[in-house]
Amino acid sequence: MVQPTRDRNPSLVGGSSIVAGVCVGAGMLGLPSSGAGAWTLWSSLALILTMSVMTLSGWMLLEAFKHYDLRASFNTVTRSLLGAKVNILSNLMVYFVGGILLYAYITSSGLIIHDLTGANSKLASVAFVAVFSLVVWHSTRAVDRLSVVLVTFMVLSFVLGISGLAARIDLGVLFDTSNVGGHYAPYALALLPVALTSFGYHHSVASLRAYYGDERKAQKAILGGTLIALMLYMAWLISIFGNLPRADFGPVVARGGDVNALLAALSFAIDTEQVANIISAFSAAAILSSFVGVGLGTFDFMADLLGFRNDRKGRTRTWALTFIPPLLLSLLAPFGFVLAIGYAGAAAAVWTCIIPALLARKSRMLKGGRSGFMAPGGQAGILLVLVFGVLTVVFHFLGLAGVLPVAELGGRAQ
Question: What is the pLDDT of residue 283?
């Protein structure tokens, strides 16, 4: 039974779990290598800043959406407030990021199922989509319930995975006290695009608003979800940086943050095999929670873009256009997303920061724009989100061009 747009009494825990589940993907395993140059203090500041800005930008979307029907998503609101040309750019960014992420999750899920069962990875990807995309087709409530289970499992497995590391934290290693006069701040610039994608829940904002039927409840769910993500990221970085000296991060950075390289470097402190199994279970749950969360947001975006009704026939058509294209790409070119995802961070910055700031600014110019729900921070908040988004795009391309400073960590601290 397809649920109506508005649920009677949806849980804030469920909404927060949807946001946290979308944010905390397997990509968090790459945060230690991305933050190795900036190390503990500057990596923490970069994550806190990014979480604050990304939470505020999500609230700005809610503020702009308040003028429209609960089924409205990016297409309707951006076209109305910013015009057709900006809307075309926004729609391309939204679908590019959503489609690439679904493509990556579908491919990764097939490989995980293959490793566990020996089944053909392509058939496994088809089965994964056939089963779990139906959760999105059914209702937001179904995604809510599944997300609560998955986030609970992720938190428990995460705690088990880092408990050994947390018990052995060395404050001297954590704060790199042996590196007197070391430089850290410049390396935080390269971390910002990675941090931004680690808080990229914005596909779900319109879905949460429709689910709660109230911007203020959606606001609380967004804050709850981003706080859960921030706490997990901080605990993970502190546990890693408190055990593995910065000067010894060279092999991990050289292999692009590969989790096996990270575990090998930490083998002195943990049962590598046990932690590897826990991290594999965590990653599987993270991929599934991100798949249904991003799938839900992209599903609602497509329904708004194409004007499909919220009945069985309309939802089935939306389902097909949301999930079939990334599934076909996964079957035909399983690792094509690796190249495309390198540009997803810049695209995400456009529609998770720049577009929301512009929408909030325009929303406040409308009649009645300053009544009802408004994101805090006033004009300064809008400027902060806008500048953060522009700088993140710049840093992203500077990083791809090899211009940003990279910590060449090896046998000595840098």
Answer: 81
Chain-centroid distance, C-alpha 266: 26
Closest Cα to residue 185, out of 48, 345, 39, 378? Answer: 39
Q: Two tokens at 96?
A: 């590019």
Q: DSSP secondary-structure letter at 340?
A: H
Question: Can you tell me whether residue 239 is helix, strand or coil?
Answer: helix
C-alpha–C-alpha distance, residues 385 and 353, integer Å: 6
Q: Taking the CB of residue 160, how many other CB atoms lie within 10 A of it?
A: 15
pLDDT in tens, 214-247: 899 999 999 999 999 999 999 989 988 998 888 8
pLDDT of residue 284: 85
Furthest-apart CA pair in the chain: how many Å?
65
Q: What pLDDT is recorded for position 408?
A: 64
Q: Which residues of the chain have pLDDT under 50?
A: 1-7, 411-414
Q: What is the pLDDT of residue 344?
A: 82
CA distances from 200 to 97, 196, 226, 294 (A): 10, 6, 9, 9
Rg of the Cα atoms in the chain: 21
Whether the predicted model's global pTM rises above the 0.90 cut: no
Q: Where are the beta strands (DSSP E) in 18-80?
A: none
Give the three-class secondary structure for 224: helix
pLDDT given for residue 410 in this prediction: 56
Domains in the chain, ordered, with CATH? 13-366+375-400 (1.20.1740.10)
The position carrying tokens 């994550």 is 47
Q: What is the DSSP string of 342-387?
A: GGHHHHHHIIIIIHHHHHHHHHTTSTTTTSS---TTHHHHHHHHHH
pLDDT attached to residue 412: 40
Exposed, middle or buried: residue 49 (CB in 10 Å: 0-12, 13-18, 19+)?
Answer: middle
pLDDT digits (tens, 9 = 90+) for 63-82: 999 999 988 888 999 999 99
Q: How many CB atoms are located within 10 Å of the residue 214 CB?
A: 17
CA distance 32 to 40: 10
DSSP 119-167: --HHHHHHHHHHHHHHHHHH-HHHHHHHHHHHHHHHHHHHHHHHHHHHT
| Contact partners, residue 243, CB within 8 Å, separation at least 6 | 165, 168, 169, 170, 173, 266, 269
Residue 161 has a pLDDT of 79
